[in-house]
Amino acid sequence: MAKIEHQLRSPKPLIEHYRQYLPLTEKTVAVSLGEGFTPLVAAPRLAQHIGLEQCDLRLKLEGLNPTGSFKDRGMTLAISKAIEAGSRAVVCASTGNTSASAAAYSAKAGIKCYVILPAGKVALGKLAQAILYGSKVIQIDGNFDQALDLVRDVGENFPVTIVNSINPFRLEGQKTATFEVIDWLGQSPDFLCIPVGNAGNISAYFRGFKQWHESGKTSKIPRMCGFQAEGAAPIVRDCIVENPETLATAIRIGNPASWKEARHAIDQSGGQIDMVSDAEILEAYNLLARLEGVFCEPASAASVAGLAKMAARGAVQKGATIVCVLTGNGLKDPDCALKHSRVDLKPVEPRLEKLIDCMGLKESL
Ligand SMILES: *Cc1c(COP(=O)(O)O)cnc(C)c1O
Question: What is the distance in A from the centroid of ligand 1 to the CA of 354?
């Protein structure tokens, strides 16, 4: 409903729709691919499975953005502002989704885009996107944190705009997800569960909730609950992780750029930051697909894995409204889905007898 209303009321690009809350000027022209206004679907079967049947659990489907992740919200603003400032080229380090998004919005704007990736650690769909959108893709024999250090140096020494989340417009654009949540629910939820990698998104959500709380559009700020992968949990462990490891490549980060702001968001909102194992991530990834029909990225499932842990220790009160942010689309990383499923795909003879056997129809009827 809300999605339809949004679109009927506003055929405008996302950043123009929310322009009074964003750093736009009369000169800003939105570079848009139809981002934002993603659905917030109820997940009652999942809620029941993790013991939260008396709660209102919602999934924010950010994988439905134009390039398949929430990064488009920040990128539409970052690229629009880069154009406004006269920039002709942008650069980013990426675990995959930032590069896909930067490449697409740069193509739309007609400017050059360079993306620096950790070799062998980017899901195939994301690499394919960056290549097809026509960016200059450079893989380094190193991890994301090293790639970002290099990008900072490039930005300091050459006329190339950095579009990582250290670009101030990225987080401003990402705030729009918060506004949609409040518009959709009519108020803030009690809990906001979100995966944490470079920690920009959790910081952006907190900024958005705070801004609308201050302007009187919602009476409360949710508890911000962030989840890192066990092998890449610098904020939880309170120290830099030199060699982060997790199958959730989008959050495989050992020294988050927005560490301080994320810490502030968690503390100020009465939230928490915890870590989840790869096994717990995979479990949530499967449950989302099987119980709710949602195919998200492994990193996205960290939000649900974390919520399940909170539920198990009784940290979620009855009647609570909870939003889990599903940050990216599962189709970006089909390898992960196939590698971790135990399904037998061996072909059988094309005979009815065999088929009935395989379907197990005799036993189940
Ligand atoms: C970028 C990304 C994250 C992590 O977001 P941060 O702002 O870096 O914390 C999580 N999931 C997906 C799918 C992403 O692309």
Answer: 45
Alpha carbon nearest to ligand 1 atom 8, residue: 198
Q: What is the per-residue pLDDT for 345?
A: 86
Find the 308 Cα to ligand 1 centroid distance in Å: 20
The rounded Å distance from CA 215 to ligand 1 centre is: 28
For the residues of 29-75, what is the DSSP string, one character each?
A: ----SS-----EEE-HHHHHHTT-TTSEEEEEEGGGSTTSBTHHHHH
Supply the pLDDT for residue 5: 56
What are 7's two structure tokens? Answer: 């679109």
Q: Tell me the two tokens of residue 347.
A: 């072909």
Q: Ligand 1 mean position to 94 CA, how many Å?
A: 10
Residue type, 82: A
pLDDT of residue 136: 98
Residue bearing the CA closest to ligand 1, atom 14:
250
Please give the pLDDT value at position 9: 58
Residue entry with tokens 């968690």: 266
Reported in sequence order, the residue ranges of the chain that DSSP labels E, i.e. its strands, are: 40-42, 56-61, 89-93, 112-118, 136-140, 161-162, 191-195, 223-229, 272-276, 321-326
Rounded distance, CA 261 to CA 72, Å? 21
Measured from the Cβ of residue 29, the count of other Cβ atoms closer than 10 Å reads 12
pLDDT along the chain (365 residues), means of 10: 55 94 97 97 98 98 98 98 98 96 98 96 94 97 95 96 96 98 98 98 98 98 98 98 96 96 98 98 98 98 98 98 98 92 87 93 77
Euclidean distance between CA atoms 17 and 207, whole angstroms: 18
How many Å lie between the centroid of ligand 1 and the Cα of residue 255? Answer: 14
| DSSP string of 118-162, one letter each residue | ETT-S-HHHHHHHHHTT-EEEEESS-HHHHHHHHHHHHHHSS-EE
d(CA 23, CA 316) in angstroms, rounded, equals: 36
| Pairwise CA distance, residues 228 & 196, whole Å | 5
What is this structure's pTM?
0.95
pLDDT recorded at residue 4? 53
Measured from CB, residues less than 6 Å from any atom of ligand 1 are 69, 71, 97, 165, 195-201, 250-251, 297, 299-300, 327-328
Q: Among the atoms of ligand 1, which is closest to the Cα of residue 328? A: 13
Non-local (6+) Cβ contacts of 265 within 8 A are: 202, 203, 205, 206, 224, 271
